């Protein structure tokens, strides 16, 4: 869990045409992901999640990102972009919208469905903007393009943020071992190829470009633009700095042992996994979904 750093000085004024990226949560901890992009006097927020308390924090329901630095600048926020629907990425949105309820909230169909149900409990009617992979939308000085990524929840998106300072690719969460999407007919490249997929590579279909010669010409133009302007990759990945490889979830490691244990039981087994894909629960449970969360 991160802690305040009072020794850090205030950020200097942003140079004209510059881009500032500030993480208000999510670094060195699993939760409360929130990143703020500042450009041309405006702010774009990517994700706004919560962190769940530890056993040493009784009485605490959730821990929010520290948004003190932007509290006086909420009128400058042009949008909140949500990469996917997990609580550590959307759970803080109701508390942000309490401060300013008309901030546009951008996300995929499933992500916004989760959020709208949550906001209904808070009595907030959000101003939402639904996007899907391949869409490109402008929010103030930020030009955002959305790309599908593989994760344990459907409709997860990465976002490429273009400004005069260059392009930043924010991946959101993704699973490097999850090669296919929840729609098996469409396979996405491995995350190491993500930047080639956005925008385009002759070995993969560029996002938003048709197949064939026309798509290759469009992809060539997009690749040339990418080479000129891509400046920063922000990649979310738990334990990314740990050496070694992740075990497969399809028969080896803890998942495989759990499945074998269920098969040896005569009675009913009720499982409560953390944020699983439905297809994975069916697979591990031998075709029967017993529980999920």
From TrEMBL:
InterPro entries in alphabetical order: Metallo-B-lactamas (IPR001279), RibonucZ/Hydroxyglut_hydro (IPR036866)
Biased composition (Low complexity): 232-252
Domain Metallo-beta-lactamase: start-end pairs: 31-236
Biased composition range(s): Basic residues: 178-195, 220-231
Positions of region (Disordered): 171-268
Coiled-coil stretches: none
Protein name listed in UniProt: Ribonuclease J Rv2752c
């Amino acid at each position: 869990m991160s802690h305040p750093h009072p020794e850090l000085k205030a950020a200097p004024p942003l140079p004209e045409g510059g881009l500032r990226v500030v993480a208000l949560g999510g670094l060195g901890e699993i939760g409360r992901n929130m990143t703020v992009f500042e450009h041309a006097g405006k702010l774009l927020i990517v994700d706004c999640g919560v962190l769940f308390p530890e056993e040493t924090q009784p009485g605490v329901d959730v821990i929010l990102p520290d948004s003190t630095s932007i509290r006086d600048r909420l009128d400058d926020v042009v949008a909140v972009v949500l990469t996917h629907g997990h609580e550590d990425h959307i759970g803080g949105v109701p508390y942000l919208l309490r401060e300013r309820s008309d901030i546009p909230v951008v996300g995929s169909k499933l992500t916004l469905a989760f959020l709208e149900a949550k906001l209904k409990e808070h009595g907030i009617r959000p101003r939402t903007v639904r996007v899907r992979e391949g869409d490109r939308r402008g929010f103030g000085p930020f030009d955002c393009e959305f790309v599908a990524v593989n994760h344990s929840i459907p409709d997860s998106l990465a976002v490429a943020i273009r400004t005069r300072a260059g392009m930043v690719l924010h991946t959101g969460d993704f699973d490097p071992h999850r090669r296919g999407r929840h729609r098996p007919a469409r396979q996405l490249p491995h995350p190491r190829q993500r930047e080639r997929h956005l925008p385009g590579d002759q070995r993969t279909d560029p996002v938003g470009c048709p197949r064939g010669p026309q798509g290759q010409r469009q992809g060539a133009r997009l690749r040339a633009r990418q080479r000129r302007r891509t400046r920063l990759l922000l990649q979310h990945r738990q334990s990314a700095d740990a050496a070694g490889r992740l075990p497969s979830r399809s028969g080896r490691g803890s998942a495989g042992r759990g499945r074998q244990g269920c098969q040896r039981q005569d009675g009913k087994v009720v499982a409560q996994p953390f944020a699983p894909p439905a297809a994975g629960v069916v697979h591990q449970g031998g075709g029967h979904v017993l529980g999920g969360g």
